[in-house]
Structure formats: C-alpha cells, structure tokens
Amino acid sequence: MNHGTALLWKRRALSSLSATRRGLPKEKMSENGIMSRAKVLTIDTMNPTVKKVEYAVRGPIVQRAVELERELSEGMKKPFAEVIKANIGDAHAMGQQPITFFRQVLALCSYPELLSDSTFPEDAKSRACRILQSCGGNSMGSYSASQGIDSVRQDVARYIERRDGGVACDPDNIYLTTGASDGIVTMLKLLVCGEGTTRTGVMIPIPQYPLYSAALAELGAVQINYFLNEEKCWSLDITELQRAVNEARQYCNPRALCIINPGNPTGQVQSRQCIEDVIRFAAKERLFLMADEVYQDNVYAEGCQFHSFKKVLFEMGPEYAETVELASFHSTSKCYMGECGFRGGYMEIINMDDEVKDQLTKLLSVRLCPPVPGQALMDLVVNPPQPGEPSYGSFIKERTATLSALAEKAKLTEQVLNTVQGISCNPVQGAMYSFPRITIPEKAVKEATETGQQPDMFYCMKMLEETGICLVPGSGFGQKDGTYHFRMTILPPTDKLKILLNKVKEFHQRFTQQYS
Amino acid sequence: MNHGTALLWKRRALSSLSATRRGLPKEKMSENGIMSRAKVLTIDTMNPTVKKVEYAVRGPIVQRAVELERELSEGMKKPFAEVIKANIGDAHAMGQQPITFFRQVLALCSYPELLSDSTFPEDAKSRACRILQSCGGNSMGSYSASQGIDSVRQDVARYIERRDGGVACDPDNIYLTTGASDGIVTMLKLLVCGEGTTRTGVMIPIPQYPLYSAALAELGAVQINYFLNEEKCWSLDITELQRAVNEARQYCNPRALCIINPGNPTGQVQSRQCIEDVIRFAAKERLFLMADEVYQDNVYAEGCQFHSFKKVLFEMGPEYAETVELASFHSTSKCYMGECGFRGGYMEIINMDDEVKDQLTKLLSVRLCPPVPGQALMDLVVNPPQPGEPSYGSFIKERTATLSALAEKAKLTEQVLNTVQGISCNPVQGAMYSFPRITIPEKAVKEATETGQQPDMFYCMKMLEETGICLVPGSGFGQKDGTYHFRMTILPPTDKLKILLNKVKEFHQRFTQQYS
C-alpha cells in the first residue's frame, strides 16, 4: 500500500465510520482494491410495489427467445432455423403490411415538402394538411394539448357516433393516449385510494391481459379475479361477477370492473345481452366500468358482432346512460392497422364527475402530450378514405385483405389445435390469439414443480428450445387451478402459421409421450 | 307517472334500500326525474396523491390563454391581437423549423416507397434503411424491445462516448424513453419506498422544473428543497445541499439528488468544479444522482460549457466512477431540434445494481415500448450527417442558425429585462428560459392575497389579460419566500421577442404605477 492509497484508506475509514454512526451500511473493499460503497438502490431498498409487477408477455420466455435468436445468428446449431415469436400481438413484425394511405399521410406530415409531390393522392394531402393545421407551427414536432389535438378528438367523436349508430359523443370526453395501456393505467391511477379493507379493489377477468395485474400491483390496488367460463367459450357469467364482488367486499372496496371485449387472451366476443347484464351489475354494485375495446374490428366468427359498451349503455335508457361511469379504450395497435410502434390510442369517458375530469386533465398535463405521430395515426384510423376519394378503393382492399386473412387464420388455428389429443381450443371469435387448454402429464407437472417452474412455463420453455416457437404460458394470464394453457397469436402469414401449428402438434405429442 | 315509470320507481326504491343496507350513499332524484346515483369516482373518493399533483407550466394561466385565443377567434375585442405563449419550451410552435434531414429520414421510415425517390439524399436513405432494418418486419409499426431498438441504443452509446471525450458507454446502460419525463418518472418510481421517517426523500432544486414536484407528489415521496443562489447567477452551493439533507434526515430518508443542468427554469450552466463537488457530496451522503441534461446543446454564455455528470464522474477516478449511481436524461424535445411532439428520449444508467436493472427492464416492458418514431428521431440526433455526406452542409447550417438565434435571444432577453426598474434578470447562460425576479408592490401583494392568489400569479394573469402574453408565475417552480419571478421562454422569433419584451416592460411599469 503506497502513501496515496493509505491516505485514501484513512478517508474511507472515516467516512465509513460516519456512515455506521448514521446506521447506514458500511462500505466494503472489492477485489480490485476499490472501495465499493453499498449501493443506494438495491433489490432490498427499491420500491416494493414495482417488485410485485409481472408481465408475462415480455417475460423470461421472451428473453430466452431473444438469446436463442442471437445464438442462431452466431452460427450455433439448433433444432430449428428461426425463432417464431407468437407471443405478442405485433402484426407488422409478423409480416402484416401497413395501410398505404396511413403511411402516405404520415410521410406528408413528417416532411411537408412532399405536399407538392404529385405522386401522392389528393385525399392523403388534404388529411395531412388538416392534421398539420391543428399542430402548433404546423409541425408534428410541437407539443399538442395534453388531452390531444382538438381536431383529432373531434374526428374520434364522429367515428364513435357512426360506430354506435348515432349515439352522441362529445369530443370533450375524448382523451388521446400513448397506446391503450397508458389510458388504462391512468384511469386505474385515479381510482386507487384507501387502506386495508377500504383499499380500492378492481375486478379483472381471469384469464386477463397482464397489463391489468401489473398496473394494479404497481398501484398497490387489490386485484379481484372473476373467472371466464372456458366451457362456454370463455363467456362471462354474472353469477361469477357476483361471487367475486361479494367475497371481495370482505377485504377491500371494489370500485371498478374491467372488461376486455373482444377478449385477450381468450378471443371471445361478448353478446349484447351479456353487456347489458354487466352494465346492470356495475350500476347495482356501484362499479366504475372500464371497457378495453382495442380489438373492436377483430371479430371473425359468424353470428358474432362487436357491441360497444357505450352504445349498449345508451340504449338502456337514461337510468343507466346518465349514471353509469364508463371509460372505453381504443388503440392504433390492433385491428387491421396493427400500428403498435406509433403508440396511438384514445379513451372515451362517460359520466365522469367534473372535478375528477379536471384532475385527470391536470394529471395528463404533467407528461405534456401523447406522441403526435400516434395522434395523427389515430386520426386516420377514425377518419379513413371515404367513398369517392382517390384512396378509398385501395384502402378497402388492403383492410379487407388483412381482416379476411386474420379470420382465416383464426379458423385454421382452432381447427388444427383441436386435432391434437390433449389440446382443446375454443373458437377464436375475435382479437388475435388462441388460448387453448393443454393437458400436461403428471410426470411433467412434477418435474416442473421440482425445478420451481409453473408446469405451463416448463412446457412452453421446452417447446421454445425444441422448435423455436415462442408462446406465453397461461399462468402469465391467470387460469383456474390445475388447468394449463398457452397464448399463441394468429398473426404469422398463413403458410408459416400452418408450419407453426404442425410443429406445436408434433411437440405436444412428443412431450406427452416423453412424460407418460 | 305511468305504469312503466312506477315499476321503474319500485325497482329503484328497492335498489336504493339495498344500497343503504350496505352503507353506500343513497341514490337521489335529479330534476329530470332520472335517478342520479352517487358517482363512484368523485373528488373525495379519488386517489389523494393525484390531487396533490401540480404542474404550473400547463396550469390555470394556460387554460385562460386558450380561452382568450378562442374569444379572439370569435371576434371578441381584446387589447391585443394575438396570444403569445411564452410559457412552454415548444420551439416549433414558436416558428422554429425542423431539421430537414431529420424529417426526410422520418418520411422515408414512415413510407418506405420513398426510398426509390431520387429527390431524397443518399445519407437520409441509408439512415432510414438502417433504422427500418432494426424494426420488426422493417416497419416502424412494430413494437421495439422495451429498452428501445438495439441499433439506436448503440448509436446513443457512441454519441455519449464522443461527447464525453472517449469515456466508455455500454449500450446496455441506455434505455430509450417517451421524452425525458418518462425516464425521470420511472427512475423516481424505482427509488420510492418506506413509510413515515423512512420514506424516500428526493432532493430537487428550487426553482425546479415542476415535473419533479408533480412526480414526487404522485409517488408520495418526500420533496427535499435545496435553493439555488439567485445572487450568484442561480449557482448551486454545496453548503445549501448539506443544510437541506441534514434537515431532511430528521423526517425522511434522502436517497436521490436531482440536478437540472443547464437549468430549467433558471438557465444557469454548472461549472466543472461544481459538478465534481456535487458528485462528492452524493457519494458522501449516499444519494442516487439524477442528472437532467436535456439542454446539453443549449449553452450560450461565453466561458460556459456543458459538462456531463457522466464525464466528470469518470474523470474523478474509480473511487467515484465505480460506485456513484447515476441516471442521466436526454430528449429530442430541446436543443437545436425542438422535436417535442415525437416524445423521444433516452436515459443512461451508471452503476445500477444488476437486480434493480432487471426490475427496471421488467417495469418498462409493461408499457411495451417507447414510440418508435421518437426512437428513430433520437437516433438521428445522436447520429446526424457526417462530414462528406450529402446532407452535412445543410444540417450544420440549420443547426448553427437555430443555436445562434437562441444565443442572440438569450442575450436580448437579459438585456431588455434588465432595463426595467423592478425587474432583475440573471444571464441566460443556457436552456431556453429567462427567470427574472420581479418587484411586486405591497398593494398588489395585498390584493392578490385577498383574492386567494399567489402575487406572481396575480401579476401574470393581469399581464395575460392586458397584453396576451402567457408566462408562468415563479410560484409554479418554487422560489424563496417573499421573492417573485416569472418564467418566459426565449423561443419567439427575434422580431416578435423584441415586441414581447417591450410589452412586458410597459406592463410592468403600468402595473407598478397602478399599485404604488
């Protein structure tokens, strides 16, 4: 130890002493002789609610998939040539093409010099001009109002009115968001209060999209599970809602009811009658309704139709229409456009207390505004080319092609999976996922449990390692005890999806044999 | 009352009864005969931490400005022809032009058909191709990794290395964010824990950018104020930091120290020595350092230079470089690009515990990913045209023009404001704002207090009504008791800024006279 180091040591010893006096962790010496102070932020001293957050859609299985991709690219030998990520509803990543008109308008808004380019259609130019005129300094680089660009909110309101057969929509009730997730988290944030048995409880479906459980964990709210009925095509029973809320009233204050329709991960489409029943239930039990309707254009099954909660609410007459509090969420990420990366979305708020609305606006203002390109895209989704406009034909063609392909793939997925013994798949009525039930042999359950894994995680990890197919285990969404599932998107191109489904089939048979 | 209504009534009466039995608020009859249920979500039952949030930059004064704009557009007579929003750092809204190259690349990424358009320069095309190749399905519509696109993070890392004279930067430490605000809130979220006197305290400058106070209120963390020294050009004194932390240790657990450099709203640029002292202080007091460096290119005053906390930290040797935990934030919204609407940003994390890093990645994954167009823009900011590339000349010209104009306006603002008796303005060394101190006559203070307003809010509201100029009162940022300020951006075009400054001058003189 030279003189300088000795001095350093002395200083450290003094500093360490004073830390001890304050009851702080002592510094310690690391291998290279550098004093390693105990970190300020460690797993033991970080926010405990953050630790409770789980999000399976991008969990350990996806991390392993990314590793496998890297290993493949480094030339490592695997029993497969590529990793197929069927874990997340990421349409463009699976080869779905963006709507040409939308991207033309976005390019024009990004670089308005193109407005004088004669190769762009006139309707794209007029949309771009309208959007730019609503932007400060005619630039998407300006902040918008925190609630979103006025003209976009007006277009959203008119879209909702058309969608809902003329039920009025006030643009003041529209809030543009950073994807639907942002809106959902914001609404939950407003609702959380109380401690102990008065703590806010929020009812969510099981299986659920894990944004809900993650947000509730982070906010320290109480998650109240209601189970969808797998035997009846993942339908929602009011008796189950009643059971869940009755039990929950003993340990928390149930204040909100979340519905995902069409369902994620379960793909069911709710009937009009069911929605009415849910609204009546929410009114009776005094619950704030949150309707996650991001898959509103993704309805495939014959006889199924999307009914918005807003429309049904208003058709039930003023007793409900003027009292039940409802937030409904939509997004640019799903449906036929699949523009996840732009993080566009909106929420419509019905019957919210005026003072709370002011608080909501204030809260949103802290984050300044949702991304303006996402707002522009949301505008195009709610205000697409109209009959008679130059881009109408190609728009309809592209939209129809995408939705037809999805409908075909929904059917295909259900059919192929149901040919496999030990896999049973409800019809994929809507959304973008199948959520089949899988039989896992007891021997496999035992091996999984012994290695500290959920049996369906064990199953999915094995599938990933053997086939390169990345799915999400049902345990990430919640399921009835003793049942196992996985979520698989229907997004790969049809020919690829066929190969994928066959690989799943072969894997399941192999796995079953191995553990029988 | 007809039969149907009577039946309805009976049902309501029953339902009301059961609500009473459960101890819930009774329903009440409204004027139109519709039963009005007590709302689930009211100002009394909403999240109390949200209520505590304040964000003056978009507060009541801006709401009034928007109203005034509407009134003007409706032909109402006012003593001014237009409202000038000098309340927020929204460059494009004030007429600043976007960098052509950036927008060309964004257009190419939005609509890749343009890659075959010969009017676009080759370097724009190669940047666009590189970005698209990093996107799933070569589309900005795909989700990126939650931490951000790999190649963008690599470019950010190389930018930081260049900026910091070769200090190494690991792309794994880079997280792309939705503007800088998102990163700052996320880091604070990780840091919050404990209750009562062990509750996390976070040191913030006063005056501060109110995102900090808003986020701390929402998270229920303890805000620890340290005062910048207005007499010494808003400099940071270590003795003041020491005072603040010593006092705070009596009622909370100080865990983080936030620095804004260059300063917002105060415009000072920290010296290298000061940054060293702050780092030493943070090490000694065991504080996680958060360096808000979004104005790193906005340095105007002679003799001032931007020094990143990261660089200074690494130059202080391993004792600090290997131990002090630091998060540094940057954004696409400020500097010469001013692209606020795209919500692009990044944070660099130094010396963070590995387990906490995993938790951070998990937390970010719930919101899926930052907006991809914002990520693309961040990439261009850190990887602009290089010498020899076709767009280099015009890029440098545009960037220089914007920064020179800002420097000129910073000087102009300081000079004009200091000609007014009762206004005293520190040099605007950097960032985009002046934060002059104003003398408010006692009579005006009295009138404000009587109407329940902060005196500087009273002053700014009066200025808005009389001149159409929208500023933010100093009370929205925090200031020493008995002192008053306002924040004004230096962003309006020079000729407009001159008019604006003269109007401020005249208003102040009138106001002073009126209340003397």
Summarize it:
The structure is a homodimer of 516-residue chains. Chain A is of the alpha/beta class and 516 residues long.
Main-sheet strand order of chain A equals 4-10-9-8-7-5-6
Radius of gyration of chain A: 26 Å
Quaternary status of these chains?
Answer: homodimer
Number of domains as seen in the coordinates of chain A: 3
Q: Please, how many helices of chain A? A: 18
Chain pair sharing the greatest interface: A-B, 110 and 111 residues
CATH architecture of the largest domain in chain A: 3-Layer(aba) Sandwich
Q: So what's the overall shape of chain A? A: globular
Largest sheet entry of chain A = 7 strands, mixed
3D structure, described in words:
With 516 residues, chain A is of the alpha/beta class. Chain A has 3 domains: 3-46, no CATH class; 55-95 and 397-514, Aspartate Aminotransferase, domain 1 (Alpha-Beta Complex); 145-382, Aspartate Aminotransferase, domain 2, CATH 3.40.640.10. In chain A, 44% of the residues lie in helices and 13% in strands. The first copy, chain A, has helices at residues 3-21, 48-52, 60-73, 100-110, 122-133, 150-163, 179-191, 211-219, 238-248, 272-285, 309-315, 318-321, 354-366, 372-382, 392-417, 442-450, 455-467, 494-514; strands at residues 28-29, 35-36, 84-85, 174-178, 200-206, 222-227, 253-260, 288-292, 326-331, 344-350, 423-424, 433-434, 437-438, 469-470, 472-473, 484-489. Chain A has a 7-stranded mixed beta sheet with strand order 4-10-9-8-7-5-6, sandwiched between helices. In chain A, strands 11, 12, 13, 15 and 16 form a 5-stranded antiparallel beta sheet that branches. The first copy, chain A, has a two-stranded antiparallel ribbon with strand order 1-2. The radius of gyration of chain A is 26 Å and the shape is globular. In chain A, 55% of the residues are buried. Mean pLDDT of chain A is 91; it is low at 1-26. Chains A and B meet through helix 1, strand 2, helix 2, helix 4 and helix 7 of A and helix 1, strand 2, helix 2, helix 4 and helix 7 of B.
